């Protein structure tokens, strides 16, 4: 028998059964497509900012591990993003990594990680990978937070960690402040407010991050024009941050990311302006989509819209028809019963939004 012939058997006997059953996180091939599937910012940074990044990267030595002292970057992040001076900060290779670190540090095998559901799929994935038990508390039929159900589930499952994506992905909903406060008060462990889409709304928990003993606020730069960098940050009481820092892989933030980020943060208004443009374009796009036959648009505080198709074509058919026209959006039709026939559309540049609307008009009137 060739060595290769034995691989399947060894994998079956070695890799966890639950991992073997999973599919890897889907990332679509996007060459030549209008890409509205991943809530990226469609705008490239202006030449002057790119020149500054290029200089910073060129002057960064690669022969040494990243420095231990990240206090300069920490201060720059605090200033740029309104993190309270007294808060501690943990940096991650994307906020995906921070989600892992939180679960790893907090959960013994089988202990609960809880989130309203549907929400960011990686809360569930990270919990499973890290041997925790994921509890998803269904949203209402209108995709709003079900606070009574959340409080019952918190009481029943005593979660070590509650993740609240505010605004929520993939629905776009913004959970009310008093509901968040009630969850924080009821949770026996940590509540992580994932503010990945905060740049597209005024709401934030950041100024209050130190007000309760069990809250952390997590953010990312991925949605404000820097998804290629892989940088997320977690803010909270320095003692919480010190505990989570113990499970961080050494040198998780590479020197090129640090250099590029430091250079970009000197141009923070450019990032703000890009986010403001997407925010301003969200409602006109929502109105144009809602005017199409058989289309329901859910209210969104993010840089994306969740849309339900209930006309002649179902969500799968619309998704496929757009794909044929080289327009990529994300299909949630089969992801959860509450998301039946739902597609998620990133707000793109004006020409991309126009192309999407034109294609949908054609598809839905065919
Ligand atoms: N949180 C939420 C709610 C998200 O939607 C995403 C990305 N889709 C992330 C976190 C992860 O962001 P990143 O790893 O790019 O920082």
From TrEMBL:
Residue(s) carrying N6-(pyridoxal phosphate)lysine: 223
GO biological process terms held by the UniProt record: L-histidine biosynthetic process
Pathway named in the protein's UniProt entry: Amino-acid biosynthesis; L-histidine biosynthesis; L-histidine from 5-phospho-alpha-D-ribose 1-diphosphate: step 7/9
Pfam assignment, any one: Aminotran_1_2
InterPro entries recorded: Aminotransferase_I/II_large (IPR004839), HisP_aminotrans (IPR005861), PyrdxlP-dep_Trfase (IPR015424), PyrdxlP-dep_Trfase_major (IPR015421), PyrdxlP-dep_Trfase_small (IPR015422)
Family: Belongs to the class-II pyridoxal-phosphate-dependent aminotransferase family. Histidinol-phosphate aminotransferase subfamily.
NCBIfam families on file: hisC
Protein name stated in the entry: Histidinol-phosphate aminotransferase
Lineage, highest ranks first: Bacteria, Pseudomonadati, Pseudomonadota, Betaproteobacteria, Burkholderiales
């Amino acid at each position: 028998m060739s060595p290769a012939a034995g691989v399947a058997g060894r994998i079956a006997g070695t890799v966890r059964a639950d991992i073997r059953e999973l599919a890897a996180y889907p990332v679509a091939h996007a060459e030549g497509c209008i890409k509205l599937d991943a809530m990226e910012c469609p705008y490239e940074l202006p030449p002057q900012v790119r020149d500054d990044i290029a200089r910073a990267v060129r002057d960064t030595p690669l022969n040494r591990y990243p420095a231990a002292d990240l206090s300069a970057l920490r201060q720059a992040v605090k200033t740029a993003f309104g993190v309270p001076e007294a808060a501690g900060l943990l940096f991650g290779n994307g906020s995906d990594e921070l989600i892992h670190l939180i679960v790893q540090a907090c959960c013994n095998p089988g202990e609960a990680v809880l989130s309203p559901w549907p929400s960011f799929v990686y809360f569930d994935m990270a919990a499973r990978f890290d041997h925790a038990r994921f509890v998803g508390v269904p949203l209402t039929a209108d995709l709003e937070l079900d606070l009574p159900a959340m409080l019952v589930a918190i009481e029943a499952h005593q979660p070590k960690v509650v993740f609240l994506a505010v605004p929520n992905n993939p629905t776009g909903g913004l959970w009310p402040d008093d509901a968040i406060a009630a969850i924080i008060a009821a949770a026996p462990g940590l509540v992580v407010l994932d503010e990945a889409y905060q740049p597209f709304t005024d709401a934030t928990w950041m100024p209050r991050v130190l007000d309760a003993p069990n809250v952390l606020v997590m953010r990312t730069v991925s949605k404000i024009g820097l998804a290629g960098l892989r940088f997320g940050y977690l803010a909270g009481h320095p003692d919480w941050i010190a505990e989570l820092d113990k499970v961080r892989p050494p040198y998780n933030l590479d020197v090129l990311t640090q250099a590029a980020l430091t250079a970009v943060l000197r141009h923070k208004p450019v990032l703000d302006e890009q986010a403001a443009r997407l925010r301003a374009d969200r409602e006109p796009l929502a109105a144009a989509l809602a005017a199409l036959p058989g289309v329901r648009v859910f209210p969104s505080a993010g840089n994306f819209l969740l849309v339900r198709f209930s006309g002649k074509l179902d969500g799968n058919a619309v998704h496929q028809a757009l794909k044929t026209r080289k327009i990529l959006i994300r299909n949630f039709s089969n992801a959860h019963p509450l998301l039946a026939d739902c597609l998620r559309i990133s707000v793109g540049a004006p020409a991309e939004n126009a192309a999407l609307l034109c294609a949908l008009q054609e598809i839905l009137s065919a």
